[in-house]
Write a structure and sequence with these properties.
Strand content: 15-25%
CATH topology of one domain: Ribosomal Protein S8, Chain: A, domain 1
CATH class of one domain: Alpha Beta
Shape: globular
Distance between the termini: 36 Å
Strand order of the largest sheet: 1-2-3-9-4-5-6
Largest sheet: 7 strands, mixed
Number of strands: 9
């Protein structure tokens, strides 16, 4: 399917579910981007989950988003249970705007939902010439180190930086061995998942994605990954006013209420401490390319 045709199809679907046209376009662009960058687990396959949540009235298709300016640099946003793409789009744009005015933008978003790929938003800031960090929390999938019960999400850590070229440096990684979307995709396609990425309910390794979804995912780097997941839960959940500590609802299976996912965006001018950032990042990349 061609990009324009796919985008129109997604927009039309969201319009049928009563999203305003500009919101439908924002959702379509984020979903198409996921497909284009090789992350189909966060792409078109997700459309039905958003529509199901709108149908069950746990996503608000016509949110009244509240933006509270705390200072020139800091803003708090209540997304009013909008589709996550909308809360995140408003959040990152606000962070960029703040950074343009004061050199740094710190934006907290609450009452949002799953927003797709963190890198999509971090890259927006980098393309505008800013360094950025993006944090968001997720439903329980990982047990804290030493525990047997899930509490932490696969909470991604995301960073982006502009370079001397038009292509920014972007790191977007969940703290689990593989993201949950890939496990769901494997289950849907009847495929196995790699050994060593998930456990069943009793703590035994499994390659069956259906068993993994009912069990536990393993974090990267053992206790270090578990600690990073907790850090993101504090930044994206506790700090923003969003759900945290295992309270974020599963977007596919839990329709008892809104997710209340939290997002935190940190955007700043790369020349805050030096005046020759572009020259320095060019040299940095050159050194890495030399040894590859």
């Amino acid at each position: 399917m061609k990009i324009k045709k796919a985008r129109k199809l997604i927009i039309d679907i969201f319009l049928k579910y009563k999203l305003p046209k500009n919101h439908a376009k924002i959702c379509a662009d984020a979903l198409i981007n996921a497909e284009l960058v090789g992350s189909p687990s966060h792409g078109l396959t997700r459309v039905i989950s958003y529509c199901n949540r709108i149908k069950k009235k746990v996503i608000n298709p016509k949110p009244k988003i509240k933006i509270k300016k705390i200072s020139t640099s800091i803003t708090s946003i209540d997304a009013d249970n909008a589709v996550g793409f909308i809360g995140a789009e408003v959040g990152i744009n606000c962070a960029i705007k703040n950074a343009k005015k004061s050199g740094i933008g710190l934006v907290a978003v609450k009452n949002s939902g799953h927003f797709g790929l963190s890198g999509y938003y971090a890259e927006k800031a980098a393309i505008n010439g800013f360094i950025s960090f993006c944090f968001t929390n997720a439903p329980p999938a990982i047990a804290p180190h030493g525990a047997k019960k899930t509490l932490l999400g696969t909470n991604p850590i995301c960073f982006a930086a502009p370079t001397e070229s038009k292509v920014p440096f972007v790191l977007d990684t969940s703290i689990s061995m593989i993201n949950r979307g890939k496990i769901r995709r494997a289950a849907k396609l009847g495929k196995k998942i790699p050994f060593g990425v998930a456990l069943d309910k009793k703590g035994n390794p499994t390659t069956d994605p259906n068993i993994a979804l009912k069990g536990l995912q393993l974090p990267i780097a053992g206790f270090k990954g578990s600690g990073l997941a907790w850090m993101v839960d504090i930044l994206a959940g506790v700090l923003t006013g969003g759900n945290h500590g295992g309270k974020v609802k599963d977007p596919f299976d839990d329709f008892t209420g809104p997710q209340n996912v939290g997002h935190l965006f940190i955007v700043f001018n790369p020349n805050l401490f030096v005046k020759d950032y572009k020259k320095r990042i060019k040299e940095n990349i050159k050194r890495f390319k030399k040894i590859t």
